[in-house]
Amino acid sequence: MSEVLVLVDHVDGAVRKTTNELLTLARRLGEPSAVYIGSGEAPVEALKRFGAEKVYVVDDADIKGYLVAPKAEVLQQLVEKASPAAVLIPSSGEGKEIAARLAIKTESGLITDAVDVEEGAVTTQSVFAGSWTVKAKVTHGTPIITVKPNSAAPEEVAGAGAVEQFAPTISEAAKAAQIVASQPRKSTGRPELTEAAIVVSGGRGTGGDFEPVENLADALGAAVGASRAAVDSGWKPHSFQVGQTGKTVSPQLYVANGISGAIQHRAGMQTSKTIVAVNKDDEAPIFELVDFGVVGDLHTVLPALTEEINKRKG
Amino acid sequence: MNIVVCVKHVPDATADRRFEDDNTVDRVGVDGLLSELDEYAVEQALQLKEKQGGEDVEVTALCVGPEGAVDAVRKALQMGADRGVHVVDEAIAGSDAIATSLVLAEAVRKVGTPDVVVCGMASTDASMSVVPAMLSERLGLPQVTLASVIEMQGDQVRIKRDGDSATEVIGATLPVVLSVTDQTGEARYPSFKGIMAAKKKPLETLTISDLGIEAGRVGLAAAWSQVEETTERPPRSAGEIVTDEDGSGAVALAEFLASKKFI
């Protein structure tokens, strides 16, 4: 069976959930080979647990100071070496850029933002703000597919996890865009927005007071999100933004509070399994999407709801 | 200094977007406009020009698309770009991002030696967010992408980039490919003066043979990926809406969440 390369998404060696999802999907296409680009000890055990048959370990000492391009060269050289059935990459900003360069380098077709990958590398995408579903496949070269978070339920299957050190040759041209400084995002102590099973978001209707939104999120064990209006008002940093120019989320439950539901916001959350909204305006377009909606003031409804949830949790 | 800003003409996101029978995006039956996210690119191109003092800086708006797509170039000219280039050719229809980036790269070379190629962070239709990186790869220029803040001094450019797990400062030496997010700031509206002036600005139309590209390398048949099926998602079935009265909303919502096992 052919190898399927999976680019490991990690923060300082801590493997993110998206990687487990990609390894799970990769098994449908062949034998998953995790590609770990990082420093220190490679998280081989974590990758084995979700079915990695092989782990390519690439020391990033020489490349971590540069943006995107060196990682594309690493994958290009691994594609040439392993002739994989496909390359799966997390659908993040950086992941899509790596995939873009890799597609040009290897003369391969590219599919981004897949929400499912089936046998034969047939992908499913959700497009036009979630209003259409597209099935597609790559017809030239090595299928290069970026996959959105929450696209598969990670399955624990023991893989061989054979470690292979790989030393890439990085061109000078790939070192043209330098990472001059890096400020790791402060942990909020809550689940990561794109990975969370439940997302509780606030918009203009919060008036800048996110406390009721955050308290509800904590009662539900949820991540906190924000609409563009809330971000533009400076109430939350951009990393909280859900929508076309922020994060796309597809949780089991999305709770929109004081968010009208403009198309730009819908683009980021419309594929959520269950949608709930609280809004003062009964004409707000968000109510067209919801499974359950409350017309009311979030400043009274959310605290009461949080109390009710905490009471039921006992 | 030469600044080229890439602009895409897209179906209006607030309209009822759909696919054609051949699974390509309907670009005729739905009103089109300059992609909102490319307005930010035009704005930053113009701001770069203004900060450089203006006179010896030329901003070229470049668009690849069918005849109607010239509207995107016109909008950029009205906002303040100096000249427009529209690559229009029947052979291009149905091109994937790979072929589109090829046409854009050759058109950028044709325009002259660029110092900065500016793009939006993504289109609002395909929203792949890959063309800037592809252009960087094809042109052999550093990519400084997904910028929320841009600073330029001499031939040095620095941007702030909100990555997935960190906020980074990226630095490079001109020439570069730059992509900008909506965090860079509101795009200007064309003034009446700008609209009048745009009519007299040069607008060149090119075909792929002008760019030395063989027809077989672009278009639907040359795409390296193929759409097998497009289906409209059924509208979500209407949910239950209740009006909160003295705390009834919270109780009803808690009931709903409990029925779905979220509590």
Walk me through what this model shows.
The complex is a heterodimer of chains A (314) and B (263). Chain A has 314 residues and is an alpha/beta fold. Chain A contains eight helices and 17 strands. In chain A, helix 5 (211-220) runs parallel beside helix 8. Chain A is elongated. The model of chain A has no long low-confidence stretch (mean pLDDT 96). Helices cover 26% and strands 29% of the residues of chain B. Chain B is built from six helices and 13 strands. In chain B, helix 2 (70-79) crosses helix 5 (192-198) and helix 3 crosses helix 4. Chain B is globular and about 65 Å long. The model of chain B has no long low-confidence stretch (mean pLDDT 95). At the A-B interface, helix 4, strand 7, strand 8, strand 9 and strand 12 of A face helix 3, helix 4, strand 7, strand 8 and strand 9 of B.
> Sheet bearing the most strands of chain A, described?
9 strands, mixed
Quaternary state of the chains? heterodimer
Strand order of the largest sheet of chain A: 9-8-7-10-6-1-4-5-11
Profile the largest sheet of chain B: 9 strands, mixed
Residue ranges of chain B: pLDDT <50 for 5 or more in a row?
none
- Poorly predicted sequence stretches spanning 5 or more consecutive residues of chain A: none
Task: Report the C-alpha radius of gyration of chain B, rounded.
Answer: 22 Å
Helix tally of chain A equals 8
Q: Work out the strand percent of chain A.
A: 25-35%
Short key terms for the protein model shown above:
heterodimer, A: 314 residues, alpha/beta, 9-stranded mixed sheet, 5-stranded parallel sheet, 8 helices, 17 strands, 26% helix, B: 263 residues, 6 helices
